[in-house]
Amino acid sequence: MPKTFEQLSRAHPCFALGAKNNKGRVHLPVSPGCNLLCRFCQRDVNENYDTDHRPGVSGKVISPDEAVEVLRRAIRLCPDITVAGIAGPGDTLATPYALETFRKIRREFPDILRCMSTNGLLLNEQAKEVIDAGIDTLTVTVNAVDPDILSQVNAGIVWHGRIYTGREASTILIENQLKGIEKVAKAGITVKVNTVLIPEINAKHVPEVAMQVASRGAQLYNIIPLIPQHELDWCTRPDCALINRTRQQAERYIRVFRHCQHCRADAAGIPGQTDVSKQLYIKPVTLENTFSHG
Ligand code: CLF
Ligand code: SF4
User: Fold this and answer.
1) Which of 69, 133, 180, 182 is the most exposed place for a label (fewest CB within 10 A)?
2) Helices (H), 216-267
């Protein structure tokens, strides 16, 4: 039975409204590949823990079987962990490993919430597999619902063996994201949408994104401030006033989450409080936070 929003708000650190609920999550970095070319992202798998803190970066990629073992250890280290999330370092639907991991986890840890995060390009066509894998919560990153605006954020997509760029790529991506959100939400799964807030590109457009995703059944919205880098290194980092104003505007259409910690794809512990990721892997994982798809 899918959990209600109220149940999730008490049990899941990223669905808590108002005060934090002090529950923990572990991210299992099983998804290496990606099918988008986000202009703010330079994905990598490396062990430059002290010097390389960027979007889409993880210390390592693990197999679904290793992920089950990592979850076992994470729960022993931090019994407050209630959520197993998969948020990269690439896209969770670009390779089959995330869904395989969730199916394995469901068998051994039926009470742990399964939380998946995706860019949504393949969500429409894989909605049934996502639903059947027993996901409790799904996050989709939607940075714009207008192809002209999205083209400034995303340079292209790789879809069914072809590269698409510009307006054509953005139109395909938006359509698949919105249809996918609708299908998964209809199945009773709680959907959250993340938007990377980019002052020069989509700040004024965010209320429109909030309205559209809410109309497709998303229940929670998370505004993530841009870390200016890569092709968007010319953009500014949103200040608190802009973040708060944009949250208030979005809140007219959808509930807004305010405790996001911009976790890495291999984070573990209680967001913003404890981090046990160092003890989970042979090599230490950085304690610095970066953007991920969470
Ligand atoms: Fe991870 Fe994301 Fe699930 Fe949370 S994170 S996949 S919904 S379990 Fe949470 Fe981290 Fe913010 Fe994400 S604080 S980046 S919102
Ligand atoms: Fe892919 Fe995520 Fe990077 Fe975009 S931000 S290119 S979806 S890994």
Assistant:
1) 69
2) 240-250
6's enclosing H/E stretch is helix 5-11
Please tell me the number of the ligand nearest to residue 12's CA: 1
Strands (E), the chain: 24-27, 36-38, 44-45, 57-58, 81-86, 113-118, 137-141, 154-159, 162-165, 190-197, 220-225, 255-257, 268-269
The angle, 0 to 180 degrees and rounded to 10, between the axes of the packed helices 64-77 and 97-108 is 50
**Residue in this structure with the two tokens 């690439």, named with its chain if needed:** 90
- Name the token pair of 24: 């923990």
- Taking only the tens of pLDDT, the chain with its 294 residues reads 778 888 898 899 999 887 787 899 999 999 988 999 999 987 655 555 444 444 455 667 899 999 999 999 999 999 999 999 999 889 999 999 999 999 999 999 999 999 999 999 999 999 999 999 999 999 999 999 999 999 999 999 999 999 999 999 999 999 999 999 999 999 999 999 999 999 999 999 999 999 999 999 999 999 999 999 899 999 999 999 999 999 999 999 999 999 888 887 888 899 888 888 878 874 544 434 444 566
Its pTM stands at 0.92
For the chain, the straight-line distance linking the first and the last C-alpha, in angstroms and rounded, comes to 23
Distance of CA 285 to the CA centre of its chain: 19
Verify whether ligand 2 is closer than 6 Å to residue 293 (CB atom): yes
- Output the CA 133–ligand 2 centroid distance in Å: 23
- Angle between helix 206-215 and 166-186 (nearest 10): 40
Distance CA 29, CA 266 (A): 6
Which atom in ligand 2 lies closest to the alpha carbon of residue 41?
3
Does residue 157 have its Cβ closer than 6 Å to ligand 2?
no
Whole-angstrom distance, CA of residue 146 vs CA of residue 266: 32
